[in-house]
């Protein structure tokens, strides 16, 4: 185990499964203590905690619906009591409710925007004063190539992810003078629960130059770079990890 992030506390939303779990495990392998936020299955969260504990760092999971500001404020208060500080925030929690606009329900539009975009606003706002006072911090928002290219059937999702890029750049500008970096990672097609339904002949997938889906670890590696010391002069950036899909 290297100790690049030793002594740091990282909060990972949606750390119970998929990309969030891979990020949490990767940052733990670099020495960070980990707080996982999730809403659904406690068994999945417990499995993430077990994997992280094995790496010899501190870990705790918290039930928190990121779409509710009060929930995120309460959870960050608990994290601060348990860990003493927050150094790294990974806004990864996200959902899809796909469908062509003609048939998309207003509630499906709202749910996706509330979790994917407002969730990142709520979490960042809840950690804002901590980062300002520390005069250091790293924020990484998990957006998507759908937010860059658009995607038929994902007007809600691509709007949320494009919005997240705007949020990333605005937060980067607001906090740059306080030595807080805010960047985004834009995954292409990554094999997780979210993409289980994607068929092998999906158009976007077949137009991925590297001709394969990415792994959650591919995304975790990019996040590790953006929260570590080698990216200290990078802020407001959107790093695509997509096998060349959106170039
Ligand atoms: P996933 O396997 O479906 O996992 C989603 C995670 O988000 C789960 O841990 C889930 O927690 C959590 N979550 C959902 N709603 C939440 C809420 N309201 N509050 C707190 N946590 C919530 O998805 P994934 O594929 O790992 O995706 C992770 C992120 O990457 C998302 O932002 C997604 O949009 C983005 N992304 C994924 C892909 C891809 O191909 N997979 C591509 C581009 C971008 P529970 O387990 O408790 O439900």
Explain this structure:
The chain is an alpha/beta fold. Helices cover 44% and strands 15% of the residues. The radius of gyration is 17 Å and the shape is globular. Helix 3 (69-83) runs parallel beside helix 4 (106-134). The protein has a single domain (9-188, 215-241), classed as 3-Layer(aba) Sandwich (Rossmann fold), CATH 3.40.50.720. The protein contains eight helices and seven strands. NADP nicotinamide-adenine-dinucleotide phosphate is lined by residues 13-14, 16-20, 37-41, 44, 64-67, 92-95, 115, 142, 144, 187, 189-190, 192-195.
What's the short version?
The protein is α/β, with parallel strands linked by helices. The protein has one domain: NAD(P)-binding Rossmann-like Domain (Rossmann fold, 3-Layer(aba) Sandwich), CATH 3.40.50.
What is the element layout, followed by pairings?
Elements: E1 9-13, H1 18-29, E2 33-38, H2 42-53, E3 59-63, H3 69-83, E4 88-91, H4 106-134, E5 137-142, H5 146-149, H6 155-175, E6 180-187, H7 203-206, H8 216-227, E7 238-241
Parallel strand pairs: 1-2, 1-4, 2-3, 4-5, 5-6, 6-7
The structure holds NADP nicotinamide-adenine-dinucleotide phosphate.
Number of DSSP helical runs: 8
Q: Which architecture does the CATH hierarchy give at level 2? A: 3-Layer(aba) Sandwich
Low-confidence stretches: none
**Structural Rg:** 17 Å
Give the SSE string: EHEHEHEHEHHEHHE
Write down the overall mean pLDDT: 96
Overall number of domains: 1
What CATH first level would be assigned?
Alpha Beta
- Label the structural class: alpha/beta
Distance between the termini: 34 Å
Principal-axes geometry comes out as globular
Q: Which topology does CATH recognise?
A: Rossmann fold
Q: What ligand molecules are bound, each kind once?
A: NADP nicotinamide-adenine-dinucleotide phosphate
What portion of residues is helical?
40-55%
Largest sheet: 7 strands, parallel
Percentage beta strand = 15-25%
Fourth CATH level, the homologous superfamily: NAD(P)-binding Rossmann-like Domain
Largest sheet strand order: 3-2-1-4-5-6-7
Q: Write down how many β-strands occur, each being a DSSP E stretch of 2 or more residues.
A: 7
């Amino acid at each position: 185990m290297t100790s690049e992030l030793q002594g740091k506390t990282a909060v990972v939303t949606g750390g119970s499964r998929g990309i969030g779990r891979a990020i949490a495990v990767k940052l733990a392998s670099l020495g960070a203590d980990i707080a996982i936020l999730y809403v659904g299955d406690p068994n999945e969260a417990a499995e993430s905690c077990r994997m992280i504990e094995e790496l010899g760092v501190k870990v705790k999971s918290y039930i928190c619906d990121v779409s509710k500001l009060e929930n995120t404020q309460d959870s960050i208060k608990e994290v601060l009591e348990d860990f003493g500080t927050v150094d790294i925030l990974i806004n990864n929690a996200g959902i899809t409710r796909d469908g062509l606009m003609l048939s998309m329900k207003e509630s499906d539009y709202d749910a996706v925007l509330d979790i994917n975009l407002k969730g990142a606003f709520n979490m960042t706002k809840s950690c804002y004063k901590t980062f300002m006072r520390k005069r250091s911090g790293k924020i990484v928002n998990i957006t998507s190539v759908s937010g860059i290219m658009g995607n038929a059937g994902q007007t809600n999702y691509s709007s949320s992810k494009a919005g997240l890029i705007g949020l990333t750049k605005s937060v980067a500008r607001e906090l740059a003078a306080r030595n807080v970096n805010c960047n985004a990672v834009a995954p292409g097609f990554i094999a997780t629960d979210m993409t289980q339904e994607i068929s092998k002949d999906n158009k976007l997938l077949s137009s991925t130059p590297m001709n394969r889906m990415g792994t959650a670890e591919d995304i975790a590696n990019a996040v590790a770079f953006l929260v570590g010391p080698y990216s200290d002069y990078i802020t407001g950036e959107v790093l695509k990890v997509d096998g060349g899909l959106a170039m």
